[in-house]
């Protein structure tokens, strides 16, 4: 048998020529001519260029040169297989892009420092009554003074109270803006200075000297056309002239969305002990340098104990606690847990994408096993081969990461459009340098994750077998099959965890939407108003205004009923305080019961569709001078007057020995969800507004007889302006929108989790289908033999499906165990659903099995259609 002569310019040593000759000899033994065998060997082994590269590996080039060589060669290999490259890049881009988009939100909300100097030293100070099990509450003026004067941990403290401001200036229409009354040292605590003008002076926190305001940069641009001369201009705030003394810097809005600040002053009587129970101040402080949160909290614990000793009547029975909360944690609130869970969920999607690409690489490595074998036979080290293959994986990951950035930019825009408006720090979410570094790091990590295992498997072939052409039906080795199965099991397990999480959130949201809020939200229009104190200082003025406004609104065509309420359910919650009942089940020696209370005008319960269970509703006769009346809800009746008729019972605000007037219970209504649909509500009491017109901030509630309540908005607004042309309205919403807004954060979390779970399900199905398709193509010869021997198509179908479903069952089993452990992290986001809800687990497992069955059936069905004579040629 005559072998071909290899050209001398290839400069191959004897060992290399021997290996090439062996490959040609194997082909010639199978009937090929010498020239055909030589060309085939050169073609299969990457021709002479590959041989030269292997020879260079043997000679040991320097690292940078090897890296450049690997990159060039890897790029050529990816270009030679555009279909594989495109699928892998798109899969990675989806996984990394989704991860980057969510990280952008996490970065903007949780990781970016607040825009203040040394923000880690800023803490909020809250009170809490342990006996009530209440959450953080604001402080009273005496408590604020105690924290300021009886502690040494703080550099400075400031207090503020929010209010709604009606802003007007010469020639402009009035508008409502978010405003804050602040102690002058707030800006010193935050270490911020105005862009123009100055901050408040200490003497401006006194009655008669507080007619100055500072405005936000946004309000300055929008209302005053960014005119630097706006400083010193007169504006009307709640009907009273004020002077603008400062314009804040861009981006400053403390708290979030605040547009106007004015000095806060305290009347002398508010410093006395009776005012300790009147809480409305939010306190922010800056820790002294070197003082940690633990040390400061210990001092606050000592202060709470001292106050309990000094004022036992106020604190002893309630268990006072004064808590410090870092400012960032206070701003973020409960959003932190939801965002971290979403980041974990999208990380699962990225891992599934990596597993899919790893399977693609394993399949590709099988096709390249002869190339790898000859490189090893020619003397290349295994580590060199692994490095080359991992370099190709990293190239894929970097290209996928670049595309992922484009997807992330679109994804961030989409997230911001669907995110709830009350998501904190939403305006700070963007793709910045940290996000770019994160994307690059994730790209490198994923490239390593999905590249190493296939590279290790491909770099250790059976040389004796791989140097031959081999049978067409060769599977690429048992190790490759095991790795492919392991990747599919991983995909199925991760997808199941995400699907279970999405299923639990969906069921929880479904349960919440089925909760009866206690009112009928359909056909109700709402809008808020803030009466300026300076214009409506006297109670009679406020009463007259609302009587006229409600009469004007009721005259609008399409309006069935109209009323006003001090706190709108699910939007503003309720104010609260203690109530005592004459001869009630709650005695004078028991702990006081804190209940929610609301001021309402006649017609409120009809407007809101609140069911009256007993007695009557308020009427125009429940006015000043008439016997004091109150309406309680069913929960209040059970707590204070169990097994008794509450009608005719007398109650009062505060303790039994307080000087407040007695009120007679004239009606009992259905309990209303005031704060959240998933919260256990307090007992509720309603007072007639015309008897005690204390609130300045009221919400109008209009029951419409038309299909679209919002269509009545302009006419209702005109009716209000006909009474007072300087009175703006804001927060114009239907009650159905209010209910929807209360569930917005849950909708957001559920929507994203469902999206990620859907992507994971598709990727897992694609992974199963890909593995089964490859397995069927490699077993064509075996299938042909079975069918030639008389095996029915059904048995072939069952054989292949059984193989795929065995892998799926393993993944489902592992996924169920992981879900049982991980879904407990969702417990705080669930309502009336267990984190281990059996029905959800069963349905999700069944869904995944059904999808897997379909993914296995398609290639199995195709295998049964193969002509046995054709299949037998795969030898």
Q: What structural class do you assign from the helix and strand content?
A: alpha+beta
Oligomer: single chain
- Portion in beta strands: 15-25%
Largest sheet: 6 strands, mixed, barrel
| Structure annotation, total helices | 27
- Please tell me the total number of domains: 3
- The N- to C-terminal Cα distance equals 25 Å
| Shape category | elongated
SS elements, strand count: 22
Bin the helical content: 40-55%
For the biggest β-sheet, the strand order reads 3-4-9-6-8-7
Give average pLDDT, whole number: 83
Any idea what the radius of gyration is? 37 Å
Low-confidence stretches: 1-13, 46-62, 469-476
Descriptive notes:
This protein is of the alpha+beta class. The protein has three domains: 119-332, no CATH class; 335-357 and 392-512 and 744-871, no CATH class; 536-725, no CATH class. It contains 27 helices and 22 strands. The strands form three sheets. A six-stranded mixed barrel has the order 3-4-9-6-8-7. α5 packs across α15 (433-458).
